[in-house]
Write a structure and sequence with these properties.
alpha/beta, TIM Barrel, binds phosphoenolpyruvate
Length: about 260
């Protein structure tokens, strides 16, 4: 069976439009060289202010562009916010929602994220919904329970017609930006649990949902983590800011997809 992968870069609050153009163009060039099969998708999520220049720079390369967040309302007096239809109309295919930095520094809750996920899906945007436990939660053996409630609450009442579009990113908080990735076995264990929770919540369509791993994914550990049966790609922070390291992860997915 063909393995499906999504290799997604989260540039966080890095890169001006000019820097984005250079980095996106370098990634585009490498993606063209790698010629990923249709089962391997490549995505970069620059800051809002660089969406336009990144889109121009990746044109014709197969690289897609996503946003790092959006609001749940379509319009209104929400100074500083960006609506899902604005993200979509800017040329984005995906939107990251519920990244642990948004949960930690901006107080985003599962209930707020549920509204954002439903609004994004209604606009035809693919949400990449991030879930994952903190170090203390892992030490207290609460990982599976935390992830379960993030999924149950975050995916409440989502339309089954659009739910197969959804992407989940399992990102253990202790592994993000620390250099300390989960082992491939730890990732697989939680991904398998996520797969079964999705089946409980969404039924048969859950089999189509891509589950990405995120947290210090890099060329050195990509082969091993991406080879696990319930891992369908990665959400990559640090290593997506260098075209060489991001391309090496795309290359690992390409190899596994056809093996
Ligand atoms: C992230 O920000 O989603 C992430 C996984 O970061 P890093 O790869 O740097 O750990």
């Amino acid at each position: 069976m063909t393995r499906k992968y999504l290799i997604a870069g989260n540039w966080k609050m890095h890169t001006t439009p000019t820097e984005s153009r250079t980095l996106a163009a370098a990634i585009a060039e490498k993606n063209i060289f790698l010629k990923p099969p249709p089962s391997v998708q490549t995505l970069i999520c620059p800051p809002y202010t660089s969406i336009y220049t990144a889109l121009e720079a990746v044109s014709g390369s197969g690289v897609q562009i996503g946003a790092q967040d959006c609001h749940s309302e379509a319009k209104g007096a929400f100074t500083g916010e960006i609506a899902p239809n604005m993200v979509k109309a800017s040329g984005c295919s995906h939107v990251i929602l519920g990244h642990s930095e948004r949960r930690q520094y901006f107080g985003e809750t599962n209930a707020m994220l549920n509204k954002k996920i439903r609004a994004a899906l209604a606009e035809g945007l693919i949400p990449i919904y991030c879930v994952g436990e903190t170090l203390i939660e892992r030490q207290q053996e609460q990982t599976v329970g935390v992830v379960r409630s993030q999924l149950v609450d975050g995916l409440k009442d989502i339309s089954l017609q659009t739910a197969s579009q959804l992407v989940i990113a399992y990102e253990p908080v202790w592994a993000i930006g620390t250099g300390l990735a989960a082992t491939a076995e730890q990732a697989q264990e939680v991904h398998a649990a996520i797969r079964s929770f999705l089946a409980e919540i969404l039924g048969d369509i859950s089999a189509d949902i891509l589950i990405l791993y995120g947290g210090s994914l890099k060329p050195e550990n990509a082969d091993e983590i991406l080879s696990k049966p319930d891992v369908n790609g990665g959400l990559i922070g640090g290593a997506s800011l260098q075209a060489d390291s991001f391309a090496a992860i795309i290359a690992a997915a390409c190899k596994l997809a056809v093996s």
